[in-house]
Amino acid sequence: MPTYKKITFIIDGYTPDTLPLGRLAEYLKNFANLVGPTSAVRFERVGKGSAALINRAPQEVIPEVRARISAAQHGAGPKEAVSGFVGLKGLLGMDKTTGRIREEHRKILEFPRVSAAQYGAVYEDGTLEGIVIRIGGKDQTIHIHLKDGERTYTCFTTSLERAKALRPYLLEYEKPIRVSGKGKWNRTPSGQWELQEFKIGDFEELRNDELQQVLERMRQVPGSGWDKIGDPIAELERIRKGSDKIQ
User: Fold this and answer.
1) Structural domain boundaries of the chain?
2) DSSP assigned state of 207
3) Most buried of 40, 59, 73, 132, CB within 10 angstroms?
4) 134-148 pLDDT tens trace
5) pLDDT band at 76, cuts 50/70/90?
6) For domain 122-239, is the CATH number 2.40.50.140?
7) How far is CA 90 from the centre of its chain?
8) CB atoms within 10 A of CB 95
9) Model pTM?
10) Is the four-CA dihedral 45, 47, 52, 56 of positive or negative sign?
11) In which band, very low, low, confident or very high, does the pLDDT at 245 lie, cut at 50, 70 and 90?
12) How far is the C-alpha of 71 from the C-alpha of 82, rounded, in Å?
């Protein structure tokens, strides 16, 4: 019989009763990348007290797992392991808590509480593409919503004059546009950049080849119906000429 040792990842900010299932899955995915998703490490259960993700592995693979964790901590070793380490660190940062990994009762990695780095807003000229799905506002600043595949942008504004020029494109799925202007971006504690504001200065209708790219993103949206259409360009032309039902 092989001898097994426990490798436990402890999340101090949760208990088994407060750890959401989705968050548990995120932690397990990154922990698996850190120790090796195809290694002999096996998840066993969530322990009591602070949420402790208890795993076990044959004693002979423990040195390899320990070395993999140590290397990832310093940005070395397999990219998958480094990604797992960064992912765990990011999740703990977003949850504003600490964590650690133990081999039996021996601590082999500590995740201290990290104060989120503060970044000033970044303003940058840029372009975005999509379908105009909403135009609204009661003053000289009009709000525009743009849909690109599964993502909907709700932070666009433009002038009254420009909004009037956009009206022919409202809910016209065969007429995706490219807007240009200045955006305000903020960086989240996990290191992702999020668009906070975008002031539209100009726009243009996409060419046919660019339209194909937008339609391809629409086909990826589950339940949209576009994935079942062999010729989406022809379907859009049919909609434009009369019917608005996707067949």
Assistant:
1) 4-111, 122-239
2) P
3) 132
4) 999 877 789 999 988
5) confident
6) yes
7) 13
8) 17
9) 0.48
10) negative
11) very low
12) 8
